[in-house]
From TrEMBL:
It holds the Pfam family Epimerase. Gene3D superfamilies: NAD(P)-binding Rossmann-like Domain. This is NAD-dependent epimerase/dehydratase family protein. Residues 10-217 form the NAD-dependent epimerase/dehydratase domain.
Amino acid sequence: MTAVRDLQVVLGAGPAGTTLARELVGRGHPVRLVDRAGSGPAIEGVERFAADVATADGARAAVEGAAVVYHCVNVGYHLQVDVMPRIQEAVLAAAEAVGARLVVLDTLYPYGETHGAVMTEDSPWNATTRKGRMRAELDARYLAAHSEGRLRVVLGRSADFVGPGVLNSTLGGAVFPAALTGGAVPALGDIDLPHSYTYIGDVAAGLATLGAHPDSDGRVWHLPTAPALSTRQILTMIEQRTGRPLDITVVDEPRPFGPFDEVFMTEYAEMFYQHTEPQIVDSSAIEKAHGLTPNPLPATLDETLAWYEQLLAAH
């Protein structure tokens, strides 16, 4: 009797890929976690694997034997327009060659400016920025590969990440350490507008759930995301938890500040609209279809602050 192939391969060992690898192990799967180094802390039940998935050979080696491949790879902001299409080409071909399903972690960029309209899976793709158009073109190719029968593909879109392990987010390494130590806390754009954040654990749970349900393939889903609050409300909640007033610096235009250096902010300028209009994500479709409930934002902030306290104590 032949065993059913169950290997889950996670490409990208950043916060999303690492959290997803743990989620999949918790669901009883064998897991391979791939990045270019193949190093990092041992995770029980996870095989670390070194490969450059921007190359055909690297991608093929990475996904060999996979039942489901999760594409959680990202690259430096200034490299995305050049590198992400190459990664897509290699990963699509590799997953197709081994007969694996492909679950893609995606962004909100294809929608472009919404002028405050709530984002659903039916929202038009109106991106005008370089990175937004690039993401929309990639997504159209993913869905075309599925509709053409090359392989089964599903996309899970997330808002800005927040949670343990999340450093490179507007609600990440620039905010929590400063909030805990009395440093300057940067807040981008109009901080009284609602802005959705997706808890990194919900990113993982959403992707793993899509990976477990082939009937969800062939479309975009919004990953479970708690109801949007304004940035000011979130900072007030952090203040209440730390017991100290935050030294908030409003960065109302794209300029270097703290960890947001000039290279990053030059590239980010075209995306700054995300902080000058409401960013509201509706994830009710995946919640209803799969019984998922997003982690409440107060619990997310508690968990994130605890993680950052440990991080600061270790240095």
